[in-house]
């Protein structure tokens, strides 16, 4: 702990100028956020003409009928146009709020509300919680029309929307209620740790965040998800038998196998797994089950189990903890910095003794531009993991054989030999059903995509297959 304390003190000392030198932090945030928006718009403009290409790439020609290809191009074009307009709209909104001292206004109004209910300035944690909910709620209202448009016009037009207006409102209200029920105690505990641990908050807060994430792993499927969707055990049948057999052979600790009514909201399809290391749950969208054969769904799950086999979720968790650690260890330099708050229009009486939540939010605003770069790096890692999981599915037969050479002849093991082909077919089928974009600009993809494009994945699957067949030919 001593080593950690010394390291943290050094960072704080190096950045100590922040606490007394006035900078135009607000101007910096404005310039950076506009730069990011302009760059994102530029990416969309690079991608946009690809939606006018008359034919799919040669490797996909066989899978896309002219009609489906046209539908996918139309859908992509509409989404790109929407992304461009909504991106610019959101940036104008944020920029205007920032310009007129929105956060200082929020702090003042939250304070007045507290006074009205008889709470004095000594209730900083309650004041902070009211402040966060107020600013988040008020700033989210003008973006509501965007999600209405996206759901009821854009997705509707292309045949994906299944949300009724009443479901939309219910979802929204449930979301707000959940934010209050979960968010308020979380924020309260978060701020209480700062107050209790003082400048030595870093290890305590890290411990708290990890515990909270673990808690979410347990309560998300049991409490939160059922509020929005119905999870029912996957019916007995060929699909269930296949998945259970696959999980058993890989010693995947499968506790529950669910089908989720994703079709309640959208026709887009998916599958995923989650849970603690010793108790995992697999969830398959009903849309996926109805759109693909059991063999293909099994291949999609073989890919998912590849993520588990290589501990991808754990590795991503480690990276996110590292990220959190670097954010928290830089924060002390911004924690007692009156000029920072003054720059965001907070009055001198608030700025001279900065409330933790305000200092933390302003610090986050300053970090936002850096987050774009971190996002690009995370996407690159994630794409690597996707290839690895594809390779896992492809080489499943060899892997299982090496684990237990005595079962070489068993029928269901031999069946896993074509898992790579099945995965390829499943990916194509999902792509077609979701009308996903076919042509992708490389820079747009590097910035936005956590998954390689379909053509890239199919090419790689083909390569794996050739590599695996080679030794047998010798
Ligand atoms: Zn994946």
TrEMBL record:
Domain Peptidase M48: 235-462
Membrane-spanning intervals of the chain: 100-119, 125-154, 175-195, 201-223, 355-378
Domain CAAX prenyl protease 1 N-terminal span(s) in chain numbering: 47-230
Annotated compartments: Endoplasmic reticulum membrane
Cellular component annotations (GO), alphabetically ordered: endoplasmic reticulum membrane
Domain of life: Eukaryota
Keywords: Endoplasmic reticulum, Hydrolase, Membrane, Metal-binding, Metalloprotease, Protease, Transmembrane, Transmembrane helix, Zinc
Biological process terms in GO annotation: CAAX-box protein processing
The UniProt record lists the keyword Isomerase: no
Pfam family, one: Peptidase_M48
Residues given in the record as Zn(2+) binding sites: 303, 307, 386
InterPro entries: CAXX_Prtase_1, Peptidase_M48, Peptidase_M48_N
Listed EC numbers: 3.4.24.84
Membrane topology, from the record: Multi-pass membrane protein
Keyword Transmembrane: yes
Active-site residues, record numbering mapped to chain: 304, 390 (proton donor)
Cofactor note: Binds 1 zinc ion per subunit.
Function: Proteolytically removes the C-terminal three residues of farnesylated proteins.
Family: Belongs to the peptidase M48A family.
Protein name per Swiss-Prot or TrEMBL: CAAX prenyl protease
